[in-house]
Design brief:
Blueprint: H1 2-15, H2 22-41, E1 45-53, E2 59-65, E3 74-77, H3 78-81, H4 86-98, H5 124-127, H6 135-150, H7 159-166, E4 171-175, E5 178-181, H8 185-197, E6 205-208, H9 214-224, E7 230-233, H10 237-246, E8 259-262, H11 264-269, H12 271-274, E9 281-285
Parallel strand pairs: 6-8, 6-9, 7-8
Antiparallel strand pairs: 1-2, 2-3, 4-5, 4-9
Helix pairs in contact: 6-8, 8-9
Amino acid sequence: MDNYIKAYKTYQARLAAPGLTSEERETLLLDKEREKQDLELYKTVERVVSHRDGAKGEIEYFCKWNGLNYEHCTWEPTEEIRPIARELLEAYRQREAEAKFPYKSASYARSQRPPFEKITEDPEYITKTGGELKDFQLTGLNWLAYLWSKGENGILADEMGLGKVRSGLGWSFQTSRGLMNFPKTVQTVSFLSYLFHKMHQYGPFLVIVPLSTIAAWQWQFQTWAPDLNVITYIGTASAREVIRKYEFGPSNKKLKLNVLLTTYELTLRDSKELCDVKWQVLAVDEVRTQPPLP
């Protein structure tokens, strides 16, 4: 409260300062309006993370709030959250009920994976998103699916992608046997969705991208693969600790997430924790612009 009063007095003093131009006054008013909008945003739930039995026997939900990192998550009773986050509550309950967790994936030896079946048109899990793959994207999806079925490695790139690879940019896809370069974000997301829906491989998939593009990647996953449980692993050390505690699952052998989306820097910083996880897929954006992964 003392900090609020101090900030309010400072704001009023700046508005009343002599010589303040109309432009400067308008800037201050706009900043104040944006601050009010941010405060309203912080009151909306972005994601329901977990649940527990409360002290009075009611169910409480661990909520992440829009615009705030994971360290600001709070436990809230059902009656407080249901009116403002009904759809998110249902989404959380559905994830828990379906239980498409990595430890429930179908198990295949690398030499005994299901035979490749060519995908001639957009799969149902793509069409239900309202999107449509371009011809070269469908070709790329087939190529990745073929490689996975054989347990082999390869390079997938169109004309633009080859140029990126030559200049040291582009996409890389890694299985347990090596790297494959490919240029299109949608192909990456579609391939992970293919493994999830068609091959019943529920992860965990590790996707490493530059911080500047991480919001775009979140949007791509929400658009093309909304059924995958994608966790964005960024923020302070305390925020990442909350993610590992509540989003990962009870143990590395009982993970709940399907995709972990993070940055190269945080992968190195938390390498000890992340290396304990047995990742099914590693996709790295602009791998050549960074030192090689250890």
